[in-house]
Amino acid sequence: MAEFPHKKPENKLSHINSDGEARMVDVGDKAVTDREATAQGCISMSAVAFDLLAAGNHKKGDVLSVARIAGIMAAKRTADLIPLCHTLPLSKVDVLFELNTDQQQVICQAVVRCQARTGVEMEALTAVQIALLTIYDMCKAVDKTMVIGGVHVQKKTGGKSSDWVSP
Fold first, then answer.
1. In a domain, 49, yes or no
2. pLDDT, tens digit, for every residue of 85-111?
3. Which of 47, 59, 115, 130 is most buried (most C-beta within 10 Å)?
């Protein structure tokens, strides 16, 4: 595989082999450590949709409870959704919501923990995305203009690269 002259070898993508083909990273020699990742994102919506959701008066039921369960289920199924992810023995998945009344947003945060040889960032990101998509699905009859955005890893702990916090 040709090297990119502007990149150092340590910046190579780990999921690409020397022939440029996708591969699953071998984590067999890595130590099992406590790992945790937190991800966050939000969904913005109309005042009508937000008020229905916040009051728990949505026609489809308790939107945030359903979205919380969807996020937890998604974290547990991440390896089935993202081809090169390892299956991990998750010990904790929390999906939390904060209502931002001023901006008519629901902020979703997922915290995922395990003891494994690789991190849980993808599980946290998947939980957030699916929880937000579930809110969209349940509220789309009232507001088709909702916008999902800002999904990112806030922090991660454990592993060879140690702790990291988003700047």
1. yes
2. 888 999 999 999 999 999 999 999 999
3. 130
**Which run of H or of E encompasses 38?**
strand 33-44
Of the listed 51, 94, 137, 163, which one is catalytic?
Answer: 137
Q: Name residue, tokens 């890893």.
A: 153
Q: The domain that contains 104 carries what CATH number?
A: 3.30.70.640
Is 137 known to be catalytic? yes
Q: Check residue 83 and report its DSSP letter.
A: T
2 SS3 class: coil
To the nearest 10°, report the CA torsion of 150, 112, 89, 130.
-40
pLDDT(19) > 70: no
Number of domains into which the chain is organized: 1
